[in-house]
Structures are given as C-alpha cells and as structure tokens.
Design a protein that fits this description.
By secondary structure, the chain is an alpha/beta fold. It contains 7 helices and 7 strands. The chain has one domain: Formyl transferase, N-terminal domain (Rossmann fold, 3-Layer(aba) Sandwich), CATH 3.40.50.170. Bound molecules: glycinamide ribonucleotide. The site of glycinamide ribonucleotide (GAR) has 17 residues, from helix 1, strand 5 and helix 7. Glycinamide ribonucleotide binds next to helix 1, strand 5 and helix 7.
C-alpha cells in the first residue's frame, strides 16, 4: 500500500512541481500525492496540482480565522492522509496541529538549519539574511515539523556555495535548483518508505 501524501502550499509551487516530477519519474514510489491544500486561492501551485490531476483545496486563513487549522485537519483526515509536506507553506502551525500529526509533517527550509531559520525567516528573507551575514555556504534543509518553527528533527540537508555576485533572487534560485528540488523528494521517499 502506498502512503497517502498531502502537500500544503502558498505560492509558486516549484517544490510541489519537483514532487510531482519525482512521482512521475519513480523517485517517489512508496507514497502518492493525493491532495494539495493552499491557504492562498491565487497560488500558482494550485494550477500545477490541477495539471497533474491532483485534488486541490483552498483553506483561506483570513476567511476561516480560528477555524483554519480545524478545517485543515478535517480535510486531511477525510482524505486519509498519512504524511503532510509543507512545500513553501507560509503559515506557522500551532502545537495543537503539529502534535496531532507528530512525526508526520515535513518541511523544506531554504537554509542550513540552525542558520537563518525560525519565526520571520521565510522565502527571500532567508537569502537576504545569509548574504547580509556574509556566509560563504548556505543550502536547504528538510526536517520534521514540531511546535518550534524550523525546530524539528533534521531529515536531510544539502549545501550550496554562495557566489561573490549573488543577489537574494539568484541565490534563492540556485538553492532551489541545487538543493530543495533534490532533497525534498528524496526525504519524502525516505519517510514514506520507513512508514510502510
Ligand atoms: C522555497 O524556497 C521554500 O523553501 C521556502 O519558500 C519557497 C517556496 O517556493 N519556504 C520557506 O521559506 C518556509 N520557511 P515554491 O512555492 O516555489 O516551492
């Protein structure tokens, strides 16, 4: 039996695309993406999911307010989801949610944790901080999600060298291409395989 996977997104969805491509190429074989949930109704990630014939759902945090996480839980349980992947999901989840799915939520973060992570470090801001600090190596991390933002057990990491002329945008692109799109599918397959 394959592990049922849900992917939570907020924006462009290039990491979701990497997961879809890896499912098609057989890198992900122990699980199957059953559902994509976005908190943003305009996320391009939703179009990527639809193009791949994957069910989609929008859970709008602004509209749902206090009921946001309950709506997520309801949808995930209704679809018998075993593993949740946060792939560019820009909402912090409460302890109530993370403990409900303990060791079943994974996240990709665009730095080598414990550098440039935690509350306020997301998207381009992570790369701006790395360049501002002047580190010469950055990368990406896939980790389990617990109640501490970016604080759960690390599953996989990959380093990326910073170039003299990097901008936050060029660095973001390289970290995605060289690290995130590789380790997210590999880590997801590893977690699904271990659950099987
Ligand atoms: C990715 O770089 C992801 O690592 C980052 O947002 C981007 C989403 O891109 N996530 C975080 O910063 C979470 N803390 P995508 O929508 O194209 O996958």
């Amino acid at each position: 039996m394959k592990i049922n996977i849900a992917v939570l997104v907020s924006g462009g969805g290039t990491n979701l695309q990497a997961l879809i491509d890896s499912q098609n190429s057989g890198i992900i074989k122990s699980g199957e993406i059953k559902l994509v949930i976005s908190n943003n109704p305009d996320a391009f990630a939703l179009i990527r999911a639809k193009n791949a014939n994957i069910d989609t759902l929008v859970c709008n945090k602004k509209e749902l307010g206090d009921k946001f996480e309950d709506s997520l839980i309801k949808a995930l349980e209704k679809n018998n989801i075993d593993i949740i992947v946060l792939a560019g999901f820009m909402c912090i989840l409460s302890e109530k949610f993370t403990s409900h799915f303990a060791n079943r939520i994974i996240n990709v973060h665009p730095s080598l944790i414990p550098s440039f992570c935690g509350k306020g470090f997301y998207g381009l801001r992570v790369h701006e901080a790395a360049l501002e600090y002047g580190v010469k190596v950055t990368g990406a991390t896939v980790h389990f999600v617990n109640e501490i933002p970016d604080g759960g057990k690390i599953i996989m990491q990959k380093a990326v060298y910073i170039n003299e002329d990097d901008t936050p945008e060029s660095l973001q692109k390289r970290v995605m291409q060289e690290a995130e799109w590789k380790i997210l599918p590999e880590a997801l397959e590893k977690v699904c395989k271990e659950l099987n």
